[in-house]
Specification:
Radius of gyration of chain B: 15 Å
Order of helices and strands of chain A: EHEHEHEHHHHHEEEEHEHHHHEE
Radius of gyration of chain A: 19 Å
Structural class of chain B: mainly beta
Largest interface: A-B, 41 and 36 residues
Oligomer: heterodimer
Distance between the termini of chain A: 19 Å
Number of helices of chain B: 1
Number of strands of chain B: 9
Structural class of chain A: alpha/beta
CATH topology of the largest domain in chain A: Peroxisomal Thiolase, Chain A, domain 1
Shape of chain A: globular
Number of strands of chain A: 11
Shape of chain B: globular
Strand order of the largest sheet of chain A: 3-2-4-7-1-8-11-10-9
Number of domains of chain A: 2
Helix content of chain A: 25-40%
Chain lengths: 392, 136
């Protein structure tokens, strides 16, 4: 048995439901669509599946439409016998991490993990993006320090990070505009993206302010959709249509597990990045395509710097003009449009699916030629996760 | 002052002292009776020595704005916008950081590094919420 668990697993399948601002099907139906597509994509049949994992667990919903595709209902509908199951939000570093651990330790051979959101429909029902925690009458746990004072959305809790970062390093909105603008250019090449119409830097700068310095186009798009990922044991590779290797996975929490108590809001994800590079001989220059979490523009900034694609405080210069991160660039970024244009599929499920497509050469008009190494990251702060995936 | 619209806190064994003091206009953290370290938010456990003998301890003196945001989005019906949220560190209390609203200046005039005084204002559910005051 090899020392690193990553070598014992592959990502064998990805599948997605219809994705849009509103998709008029239940979360359960979207989930079943995605799982069916992912299992077929892997070259497997449903009876091969012996592990099921839902992100997040059913009891953790704190935003309307946040957690659809209930684990129990999905298992019942699919009539799958499991030797391993999981429904978590805490401990998540990357969507497939738990499934990979289960497969690597022999608890399952083919495990499916899914993430289903109905946040687009929920936003419409609420007349706008709903308040964080508004599914409960009182603010519990860490939210007790945020919601009562008016930090009612993830936007408001991440905004002080962006403010501190821009203050510390002299980075401007004019520079960071190139992340959403360039990702929109990528989205135009993705028929499944939510927004595909070109976005100019001027339009970005004129976008209404949500919570300074985060404006409308810095925010990902609440949407409806499901993504499923199949993780398989490496010894089954000959049975699989197009497996992708897992080179390294890391998720380190080295600071306070709290948004407002995080000590240095200008530096996020560094411990996870260091752990990732310690698990591989690959280096940042080896990465052909980057799918970096972008719940907000600033989160992609964190990862560009933490992973060492540029230095701390240098992301503004790195992305300016969009040449490096756009089509034909040295570090194509969020080639599906990211969550900013592709939709808030959340928890790096959309990012992981796109990394797999790129490494297989199945990304269509947005294919990065010869992509052999992909970086995928999730969230930031105390939920930071990062992985490197490589071509089979 | 009219009550700020929002979602009230769930009060727990660990946080009751904070909200009770807030109602009286006082800011309290926790102090470890074993090693003397201060900690916030209250967890009933010392983050320095992991001791469990914690007692409420007053935080006093001006704070310094570590970071901030001016919120323009009306997340809930009745929420008055814009308002400024500040993340405040206390030089006299290492490791104590408290998030709250800001009063005493226009939201757009707030800046990182500005001094603020401790204060509270009426919040959701009848709770007094941290509401710092710009020091002119």
């Amino acid at each position: 048995m090899s020392a690193r668990f990553e070598e014992r697993v592959v990502i064998s399948g990805i599948g997605q439901s219809a994705i849009g601002r509103q998709v008029d099907r239940s979360g359960l139906q979207l989930t079943l669509d995605a799982i069916g597509a992912a299992v077929a994509d892997a070259g497997l049949v449903m009876d091969d599946i012996d592990g099921l994992a839902m992100f997040p667990g059913g009891g953790t919903a704190n935003l309307p439409g946040y957690a659809s595709g209930n684990l129990y209902e999905v298992q019942d509908a699919l009539r799958v016998t499991t030797t391993w199951r999981q429904g978590v939000v805490e401990g998540l570093t990357l969507p497939f991490y738990g499934a990979a651990m289960a497969v690597a330790t022999g608890q399952a051979r083919h495990a499916v993990v899914w993430r289903t959101v109905k946040e687009g429909s929920a936003a419409r029902a609420a007349g706008g993006r709903p308040a964080y925690g508004s599914t409960k009458p009182t603010a519990e746990g860490p939210l007790a320090w945020l919601l009562p004072i008016g930090m009612l959305s993830p936007v408001v809790q991440v905004a002080p990070y962006a403010a501190r970062y821009m203050h510390s390093y002299g980075v401007t909105r004019e520079q960071l505009a190139w992340i959403p603008v360039t990702q929109r250019a990528w989205a135009a090449l993705n028929p499944d993206a939510v927004y595909t119409k070109p976005l100019s830097a001027a339009e970005y700068l004129a976008g209404r302010m949500i919570s300074t310095p985060i404006s409308l186009y810095d925010c990902d798009v609440p949407c409806d959709g499901a993504t499923a990922i199949v993780v398989s044991a490496v010894e089954t590779a000959t049975d699989l249509r197009a497996p992708v290797r897992v080179e390294a996975v890391a998720g380190v929490v080295d600071g306070r597990p709290s948004w407002e108590q995080w000590q240095d809001m200008g530096r996020v994800g560094y411990a996870t990045a260091a752990a990732l590079w310690n698990r591989t001989s690959l280096r940042p220059a080896d990465v052909d395509v980057a799918q970096l979490y972008d719940g907000f523009t600033i989160e992609a900034v964190w990862w560009l710097e933490a992973l060492g694609f540029c230095g701390t405080g240098e992301a503004g210069d790195f992305v300016a003009g969009g040449e490096r991160i756009g089509p034909g660039g040295s570090l194509p970024l969020n080639t599906w449009g990211g969550q900013l244009s592709g939709g808030r599929l959340h928890a790096a499920f959309g990012h992981t699916a796109e990394a797999v497509r790129q490494l297989r050469g199945e990304a269509g008009a947005r294919q990065v030629p010869g992509a052999a190494v992909a970086a995928v990251t999730n969230a930031g702060g105390y939920e930071a996760g990062a992985a490197l995936l490589t071509r089979w | 002052m009219t009550e700020v619209a929002g979602i009230p806190p769930a009060v727990t064994e660990e946080t009751r002292a904070f909200w009770d003091a807030a109602a009286e206009g006082r800011l309290v953290a926790e102090r470890c009776q074993d090693c003397g370290a201060e900690s916030f938010p209250p967890r009933g456990a010392c983050r320095a020595c992991r001791g469990r003998r914690m007692t409420p301890s007053p935080v006093s003196g001006d704070g310094v704005v570590y970071s901030l945001t001016v919120n323009y989005q009306r997340w809930l019906p009745g929420l008055t916008v814009p308002f400024c949220i500040v993340i405040v560190d206390f030089p006299g209390h290492p490791g104590i950081r408290v998030a709250g609203r800001l009063r005493g200046c226009a939201p757009e005039e707030a800046f990182i590094g500005m001094a603020v005084g401790i204060g509270f204002e009426p919040g959701p559910g009848g709770f007094a919420i941290p509401s710092f005051v710009a020091v002119s």
